[in-house]
Specification:
The chain is mainly α and 522 residues long. The chain is 75% helix and 0% strand.
Length: 522
């Protein structure tokens, strides 16, 4: 064996491997890679068709079909949603390795379709909570099998491009889903959930064409275990043994901080845009004062039915749109960097975007923040799972991919409660409106949530003051530190970037020691 090929055979080496060029890497991707990309695209279309509008559905007033709860109460739902969705894969990843990826993908699709139907059938906060828990469970079961298939269907020489294109393909679904949901909710909210229940069932068709990589090897190992010729370690003990490895444990710890700031884009930004960003200025720049009646622009830009404003989903969707069209380019760029360098640079971009959102509510700056965030995400997020999959032992790929959910479990679960709670503290237009109503002579009882339901205080303030909603929004924004929520999470991102930088230097030293002790072929 040529000694230069050796790192390609070592699935657990910490050293980076030279990647193939852009087109060579794309050409080397296998059939099953594109099938799992399609399944993930369908799953993300349905998932973000709900997740992207969940904040609006929960917090908008009942008069608009919403559930009329506060951001803080919605944060409790997010906490439970994120906790369940992130906790289960830590343990079910090992089950996927042992009993088959196809079986777990099938089971997850059944559960997820039921989740969307529950949301449609029970249009209350309790019903939405139950549906979200089912959706979290189905998503948690889905992830390890899909991502382990990706790991097994790629090599260390094309892994950057594989994860980048996978991420790009996924974002086709993440882009279409919110736009489709936007137009469904403008009819009735239940159509959002029925549509996504139908969409997720497309994966049953794709499963018919799916071939599990490494299936023969898995079945042969199961046969040896049954015959008693091979010992199988207790799954829980095996999981804990892997988690004790220092380079794995520290990596998961660092990204627990990373995931504390990253999901703000989906959990809080829709509400922020809905309350504080005047998107009519974007429409005015693009189409003039009268907007546009073109239905193609209405759909692609996420506009309201009148074509005068861009809805929150449309602004947030800039992220998925950019990733959908450009991620393969950034995958090629990140392939030229060390994995930890790409993670570090990407995290700096994400932090800068959060900082920009906190500095101003001017609509075009929000667009710029989304562009900066998307560049950072494309450099960092695919690398997160790629790095873990590359250094995982060959027979524990799904288990290690399941471990990738641990930082999400810690970081996203905390953010799910903390983000909306900070928003209520620093940025809630509804709360600011209640304070101003009291300044105009209304009593505390008259502005309480039992009298003025969630989302109704600002409407009341408009009626009491006689001012336009736009003028009142500018006044409230000037009087309060609305951007403080974003500053907290931008600082968290900078902390994560510093930790990634020092971790990268440490891992580079470990890789150097590993290579110096590697045997040399004669």
């Amino acid at each position: 064996m040529d000694s230069e090929e050796k790192p390609l055979q070592s699935e657990t080496t910490l050293a980076d491997v030279k990647q193939l060029g852009l087109w060579a890497a794309i050409a080397s991707l296998s059939y099953v890679f594109w099938i799992v990309g399609g399944m993930e695209m369908v799953e993300r279309l349905a998932f973000y068709g709900v997740r992207a509008v969940a904040t609006l559905y929960a917090t908008r007033p009942a008069s608009e079909g919403g559930l009329a709860v506060t951001m803080t109460r919605f944060g409790t739902l997010l906490l439970c949603w994120n906790l369940l969705q992130s906790l289960i894969p830590i343990f079910t990843g090992g089950l996927s390795d042992r009993y088959g990826y196809k079986q777990t993908i099938f089971a997850s699709t059944v559960i997820k379709s039921l989740a969307y139907l529950v949301m449609a059938w029970i249009p209350t906060y309790t019903g939405f909570f139950l549906g979200a828990m089912l959706l979290a469970t189905g998503t948690a079961i889905f992830k390890p099998g899909i991502q382990a298939t990706l790991v097994r269907s790629s090599t260390r020489r094309n892994s950057s491009m594989a994860w980048g294109i996978f991420y790009q393909t996924v974002n086709i679904g993440a882009w279409i889903g919110p736009l489709l949901a936007l137009h469904m909710r403008q009819m009735q909210w239940r159509y959002v959930f029925y549509t996504n229940a139908a969409v997720i069932c497309l994966n049953f068709i794709l499963l018919l064409t799916y071939r599990e990589p490494g299936k023969e090897e898995r079945l042969a190992r199961r046969r040896r275990i049954r015959e008693g010729t091979e010992h199988e370690e207790n799954l829980m003990l095996a999981t804990l043994k892997e988690l004790r490895k220092p380079h794995l444990f520290l990596y998961l710890l660092i990204f627990s901080v990373w995931w504390l700031m990253f999901p703000m884009l989906w959990d809080v930004l829709p509400k922020y845009v809905d309350e504080w960003v005047d998107t009519s200025t974007i429409v005015h720049t693009l189409f003039g004062a009268n907007g546009t009646r073109n239905p193609v622009f209405h759909f692609l830009l996420g506009m309201d039915n009148g074509g005068k404003t861009i809805q929150p989903e449309g602004i947030v969707n800039i992220n998925a749109g950019l990733i959908m069209f450009t991620c393969f380019l950034f995958a090629g760029l990140s392939a030229r960097m060390r994995a930890t360098t790409s993670l570090f640079v990407g995290t700096l971009f994400v932090s800068a975007a959060l900082l920009l959102l906190g500095l101003t509510n001017i609509a075009w700056f929000s667009v710029l923040a989304l562009v900066v965030f998307s560049v950072g995400e494309m450099l960092a997020s695919p690398k997160y799972s790629e790095f873990l999959g590359n250094i995982a032992p060959p027979d524990k790929k799904a288990m290690w991919i399941g471990f990738s959910q641990a930082p999400i479990l810690i970081g996203w679960t905390i953010e799910g409660k903390l983000g909306p709670s900070l928003y209520d503290l620093f940025s809630s237009k509804d709360e600011f409106a209640r304070q101003m109503l009291q300044a105009h002579g209304l009593s505390a009882d008259e502005v309480s949530h039992s009298v003025l339901k969630g989302g109704e205080a600002f409407q009341k303030l408009v009626a009491v003051t006689g001012q336009t909603p736009e003028a009142l929004t500018r006044q409230l924004y000037a009087q309060h530190h609305v951007g403080m929520t974003w500053f907290v999470f931008a600082a968290t991102g900078l902390l994560a970037a510093a930790m990634i930088y020092f971790y990268g230097r440490w891992v580079q030293k470990l890789a150097g020691r590993e290579e110096s002790h590697a045997p040399v072929d004669q």
